[in-house]
Amino acid sequence: MVLPLVPLPSSVTESPGTLPLTATTRIVVENEADAAASVLADVIAERTGRRPAAVAGAGHDAIGPGDIVVRRTAREGEHYSLRIGDTVHLEGSDAGLFYAAQTLRQLLTSDGEVWTLPRVEIDDAPRFEYRGVMLDVARTFFDVDTVKAFIDRAASLKFNRLHLHLTDDQGWRLQIDSRPLLTERGSTTAVAARPGGFYSKDDFREIVRYAASRHMVVVPEIDLPGHTHAIGLAYPDLVEMPVMNAGLLTQAKSLGEALPVAGEPYRGTGVGHSSVKVHDDATWDLLRDVLTELAELTPGPFLHIGGDECLGTAQADFDAFIARVTALTTELGKTPIAWHEAGSAQVAEGTIGQYWGSTTPAGAHADHARRFAEGGGSVIMSPSNTAYLDQKYDAAFPLGLEWAALIDLQTAYEWEPTTIVDALPAEAILGVEGPLWSETIETLDDIDQLIFPRVAAIAEVAWSPVEKREWTSFRDRVGLLGAVWDAAGWGGHRPTEIAWSTR
């Protein structure tokens, strides 16, 4: 029997038969598992239209056939177990129980008027500690409700990190009390003719709170020293004049985009033309103000400081900047994350690199990635030709870009994080992230079209044991999730090579 499980658990043992959910099915809450029981009731109600009653555990003698027992254990981490026989038992930490509820949600199937669960025992834990998705809110601004909806989609597939790309040439998206001009002048526009916007500190706190309720840690990014044209709208004396090369000029002409002009909002999509003045004291006064406030707002351990595509900056200046900004981030009590180009510099000890090159590394990309591990850090794998969720499925797809690759579902699935960078120890890979850049998207429906179903492929790469991953198995299992996503109201692309379930 093919079970609709994505990502595939570590261990699955099936038994004959099914367990029906009935009007008398209850959720029995043991050992202060109230939060997990509430999540479980929500997903059952969403899937079946019926919300089971929750009762406090009164000993196993009180548990009846068909009841669902939710038991919180002292064991830390994300491990969980799920046993379905004549009753259902979920056990784990708070995070583990949340993931067990997502697994149970996938297993629910209707047969006419009856909802059933397969009789199965699952013991499960993730392969990688860091399992992330990124949302670019700088090029296109998405409001708090849309970010929450994105969190819901990712959390259902056991992602546990939300990387928010908060700043870029096209806009600055976070309130900074000590530097109000960043939002007053730098947040008003976005790509093309789209409106701008920014998150107040209360907005950001609400995103962080909501993510935490889904066991996701927010990783905020202030992209530096490039991708900083929007800073120049607020503080023109702190940024260099735009530096154009032949590639940027050709791209702007082919797309009919205006070139960047100092002091004017930039609505194009070219990258690499901007930089802060990396040696000016006033620049560092600004960055200390910004990163200090961001660190105070962010309960998670990470601050992403960018470090990519600073094409007009001399290598020695770039390296000096990266060394200093990673040291500042560490001084503020946070672990820096930087795109892999920053590996050219002497980064602060423990800095994490994010690899966005191809699965066949070009130039010095692999060398730069290895440098993070050599400096006591680790690497997040986000190869652009397999993990970038903003790339087109095929040449005719109406949304997305294609500079990295055309990424169909099989391509998004069939890659292995440990084989990309030679001589990078497997234990130095912290995890996997699927970025969604926003040049071509404007709405939640657009987001769904690009992430579903490929985000499920990235989830399995990040969670499941490598020896258990196999394309034809995944193809069959992910098709059975069509009904689950439909019940949640999540749209998306439905490739015709997949047999999509409707119940």
Structural class: alpha/beta
Judging from the principal axes of the Cα atoms, what is the shape?
elongated
User: Based on DSSP secondary structure assignment, what is the total number of beta strands?
Assistant: 18
Spans where pLDDT lies below 50 across 5 or more residues: none
Fraction of residues in helix: 25-40%
Termini separation: 16 Å
CATH fold name of the largest domain: TIM Barrel
Tally of alpha and pi helices: 15
Total number of domains: 2
Mean pLDDT: 96
Give the percentage of residues in beta strands. 15-25%
Radius of gyration: 23 Å
Give the CATH H-level superfamily of the largest domain. Glycosidases
Describe the largest sheet: 8 strands, mixed
CATH class of the largest domain: Alpha Beta
Based on the coordinates given, report the CATH architecture of the largest domain: Alpha-Beta Barrel
InterPro entries: Beta_hexosaminidase_sua/sub, GH, Glyco_hydro_20_cat, Hex-like_dom2, HEX_bac_N
Family: Belongs to the glycosyl hydrolase 20 family.
Domain Glycoside hydrolase family 20 catalytic: 128-465
Keywords: Glycosidase, Hydrolase
Can you describe this structure?
With 503 residues, the protein is of the alpha/beta class. It has 2 domains: 11-124, Chitobiase/beta-hexosaminidase domain 2-like (Chitobiase, domain 2), CATH 3.30.379; 130-488, TIM Barrel (Alpha-Beta Barrel). Helices cover 32% and strands 19% of the residues. It contains 15 helices and 18 strands. The chain has helices at 34-48, 94-107, 144-155, 181-186, 201-213, 229-234, 246-255, 281-297, 315-331, 365-374, 409-413, 444-451, 454-463, 471-479, 482-488, and strands at 11-21, 26-30, 53-56, 68-72, 80-84, 88-92, 109-111, 114-124, 130-136, 161-165, 167-168, 171-172, 217-224, 302-306, 335-339, 352-355, 379-381, 429-436. Strands 1, 2, 3, 4, 5, 6, 7 and 8 form an 8-stranded mixed beta sheet that branches. It has an 8-stranded parallel β-barrel with strand order 9-10-13-14-15-16-17-18, surrounded by 7 helices. A two-stranded antiparallel sheet has the order 11-12. α1 packs parallel to α2 (94-107) and α3 (144-155) runs parallel beside α5 (201-213). The longest helix is centred in the middle third of the chain and has 17 residues, at 281-297. The radius of gyration is 23 Å and the shape is elongated. The chain starts with 10 loop residues before the first strand and ends in a 15-residue tail after the last helix. This is beta-N-acetylhexosaminidase. Belongs to the glycosyl hydrolase 20 family. It comes from Microbacterium profundi. Its EC number is 3.2.1.52. Pfam families: Glyco_hydro_20, Glyco_hydro_20b.
